[in-house]
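User: I'm curious whether this sequence folds into something compact or stays loose and floppy. Could you predict its structure so I can see for myself?
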Amino acid sequence: MKANVYTGRNSVEVQTVPDPTILNDRDAIVRVTSTAICGSDLHLYDGYIPTVKHGDVLGHEFMGEVVEVGKAVTNLAVGDRVVVPFPIACGACSACERDLYSLCENSNPNAGIAEKFMGHSPAGLFGYSHMLGGFAGGQAEYARVPFADVGPLKIDDDLTDDQALFLSDILPTGYMGAEMCDIKPTDIVAVWGAGPVGLFAIMSAYLLGAAKVVAIDRVPYRLDLARKLGATPLNFEETSVLAELQDITAGRGPDHCIDAAGMEARNGVTVVDAYDRVKQAMRLETERPHAIREAIMACRNGGTVSIVGVYGGLMDKFPIGSLMNRSLTVKTGQCHVQRYMRPLLERIRNGDIDPTVIISHHLKLDQAPHGYEIFKHKQDNCTKVVLNP
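Assistant: Here's the prediction. I'll summarize afterward.
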């Protein structure tokens, strides 16, 4: 089959690789009909996630048709149309029993590697390094889905792939980012990053009752889309974000701050931005932490900082004094996608949220390298690339 594979820093290629096979009775094989390039994939592409190997199949947002099931999979049948969550979860461990699916204790066969980096291992993830399981991803014609009796959600024909695909990751992730804020009707929410996850966080904050949402980014077309979704846009290259947020909130700061930017956040061409970029390039820190620093400093006393942007390791100059002294609450995590898929499916079906508004490009799988380039470099007004094998 054809698949998009990692071939080095800032390099991917569509190559012919072996077809996946059933390895466990709880496996399924899915013929991929739609997959997507995620902002998290760019961290792999840019070389900032360790233990990615040459030839690894990338991609963790995908859906398709079941073509084979293991003997223990009784909830799916050949021909079923499914969307697959990016965390792989067994459904039976202590974490899964608490609906903390991205922390599954049984799905990462390389947990020992992750423990060296993180202290404890999270769940295995599709297409996201050997530290997180070494599982082949979904930017391919076919994918093996472990624990298929737990993860995949069947999708009826009343919804298109474009409507359902983002249930695999970014829609639940944006929603969880907003949900962790425990939003009240008078609350003001600020979102760092107007990429796909940030845009879904904006939509979700309004769904959950926010009075006002502010979107912080530097790319005009992304800020324009955030404005169309009802957010107040702030271009951090043109204004002081902290000063603007003070003005908007009468000096108190936003009630909740959502970091949807993560480890490659930027702050224009300031000295701090240059400092972080140099340290990250020299591998002296794995993150560019400007967004999370600013979110902490901006948040009102007693507010919530919600982190759903991906971080991989260590950062410098973290403002722990501000965090501790002002009674801020921090909530974070890889999304527990399985918890949110069914409720959000109903939100889509009811017309409460339209995931398709973020799609800018449909490409063939063979065009994946081009898709990565335009997404990374914000070319051709690219907000989200969907690949159709």
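Summary: The radius of gyration is 20 Å. DSSP finds 13 helices and 17 strands in the chain.
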